[in-house]
Amino acid sequence: MARYYTESASGRLREVIAQDDSGVLSGALYSRENGQTEIRTAFYYPKDDLWIKLPEWQKPRKVSTTSRDYLDFVRRCERGPYTATTPSEIMERPGSAEEVILAVFEAARPDVA
User: Which of 1, 47, 65, 100 could lock 18 by a disulfide, CB 3.0 to 4.6 Å apart?
Assistant: First the structure.
């Protein structure tokens, strides 16, 4: 089972961030020179323990990058001032993080950027 959320802009899927026992992966659609598109995945953060602070916590906590708290931190807090996408809620789906990323993109066609 993997947890994931999507990043969308103007109603179109831009990115899928998924988490499983190996860490957090990011997937996005890339255009190739021949006009075709492909889905590429890359590790966002491998399994590790990190200190994070969610807004509702009084103090930072040490959490695993495989925890729901870490994925929520990435979704809510690791956003730059120029971020133009909107995150979805965190969802769960059977499969590895990479399998979930591919399945979500396939299910969203043609509403991908």
Answer: 100
What is the rounded CA–CA span in Å between residue 112 and residue 55?
A: 31
Neighbours of 73 (CB within 10 A): 20
Maximal CA-CA distance, the chain: 52
Single-letter code of the amino acid located at 83: T
Taking a C-beta distance cutoff of 8 angstroms, is the pair 29, 38 a contact? yes
Amino acid identity at 54: L
How do residues 9-43 score in pLDDT, each as one tens digit? 888 899 999 999 999 999 998 877 887 788 889 98
In this prediction the pTM is 0.89
Nearest to 87 by CA among 4, 10, 8: 8
Report the C-alpha gap between 68 and 56 in whole angstroms.
15
CA nearest to 101, candidates 2, 8, 9: 2
**pLDDT of 72-109, one tens digit each?**
999 999 887 788 899 999 999 999 999 999 999 999 87
Count of Cβ atoms closer than 10 Å to residue 96 Cβ? 15
